[in-house]
Amino acid sequence: MEALAELSISSAQEFIGRVSFYSTEMAKILLILVCFFFASTEALSLPSHNCSDYFTYGIDANGSFIGIFTADEAGVQKLNFSTRFIFHGAKKQVSTIKPYPTTTDAIRNIENGYRGQAFVQFTNSTSELPTLFAFVLNGKVLCRSSIDTFRKPFYAVRTEITLKTSQPIRKLKDTRPIMHPIFPQIEPKIIV
């Protein structure tokens, strides 16, 4: 009977030794997989530009990245926005330019004495958003970057829009619109 008990104890100890060996190996494998996961994720970077008075990157209500353009002065009934972006990766990363936030609101803001605004949406960007290369408003170059510092190969896209109103425009002292990019809502999770 004692021999049987000793055999059971030694079998149990051997079993525990094997389980701890396998759990240690599994922990190592899990650690390696977690490291691969974190190494493969990369944050989307915002490129630098020399147009902070008239352009900003932001996030719309749907969580999409956008670029918002602002006119250099208020009181102008017709605005011709022309932009040019350069980027790497997928070809279709910049949408056509649209009035910001909507056509109706953009025209109303112009009529109320604020500077006109337009925006583009960025899609298919993996590691870096497209870089603003040039912004021209009513034929006046508001900002332009040097293409020499941009690594090749790259794609370029140009997009234009005209906003106009025939209504009288109100006069304001401070015409600069406040541009608050919308960040995604983060809801706290309650764990009971």
> How much is the average pLDDT?
80
Q: Indicate the proportion of strand residues.
A: 25-35%
Helical residue percent?
Answer: 25-40%
- Class computed from helices, strands and strand pairing: alpha+beta
| Lateral strand order in the biggest sheet | 1-2-5-4
Number of domains: 2
List low-confidence stretches: none
| Shape descriptor | elongated
Give me the number of helical elements.
Answer: 2
How would you characterize the largest beta sheet? 4 strands, antiparallel
SSE topology string: HEEEEHEEEE
Oligomerization state = single chain
N-C termini distance: 51 Å
Number of strands: 8
How big is the Rg? 29 Å
Please describe what this structure looks like:
- 25% of the residues lie in helices and 27% in strands.
- With 192 residues, the chain is α+β, with helices and mostly antiparallel strands.
- The strands form 2 sheets. A 4-stranded antiparallel sheet has the order 1-2-5-4.
- The longest helix has 39 residues, at 2-40.
- The mean pLDDT is 80.
- InterPro entries: GD_N (IPR031986).
- Residues 49-146 form the Serine protease gd N-terminal domain.
Task: Name its key features.
192 residues, alpha+beta, 2 helices, GD_N
Give a short synopsis of this structure.
This protein has 192 residues and is an alpha+beta fold.
List strands and helices in order, with pairings:
Layout: H1 2-40, E1 55-59, E2 65-70, E3 78-87, E4 98-99, H2 103-111, E5 117-122, E6 131-137, E7 140-144, E8 155-164
Antiparallel strand pairs: 1-2, 2-5, 3-6, 3-8, 4-5, 6-7
